Amino acid sequence: MTYPPNPDPSGQGGFQYDPYGSQPGSQPQQPGYSPQPQQPGYGQPSQPQPYGAAPQLPPPAPGYPPPYGAAPGPYGPQLPKGLSVASMVLGIIAVALFCVPFVNFVCGILAAVMGGVAIKKVNAGQAGGKGMAITGLVLGIIELAWASLWIILYLSGAATIGMAGSGM
């Protein structure tokens, strides 16, 4: 491989070797070759585009989601997930507050009911977020079982203390 001659023998700037051939003169020219091929369609537009017009995107490759900003297409519109999210959040709050007897019971009831309704809507195709709805339903049921056990133990302990205090 030969290098082009150095036009600046002093070494103060001038030509530098470019191994990728992006500088002019770094590689020999071939007939019919131009370093930057002209691509049609990149000149001035013939008519101005209105501001509201969206660019046309190519269709997505099979097996991949659509590009950002593309119309929903075969994936359909996004379904509301509010009930599923509320169910899951209430279930998490109920489990986090398992030491607070009546707050966790109320949150557990709400999480289980909202989770059941959300699952019914998801199965009917009216809502999204099936995983969150199932999570809220399961956490609500677990918390209801825990709170019910706590209430039963509390009432049985109160009954035992009441019987001990009466002298029976």
Automatic annotation (TrEMBL):
* Keyword hit for Ribosomal protein: no
Write down the species: Glycomyces paridis
A Pfam family of the record is DUF4190
Domain DUF4190: from-to ranges = 83-147
Transmembrane ranges, per UniProt, are: 89-119, 131-153
Tell me the protein's name: DUF4190 domain-containing protein
Keyword entries, A-Z: Membrane, Transmembrane, Transmembrane helix
Q: What ranges does the record list as Pro residues composition bias? A: 56-71
Ranges of biased composition (kind: Low complexity): 19-55
* Stretches for region Disordered: 1-71
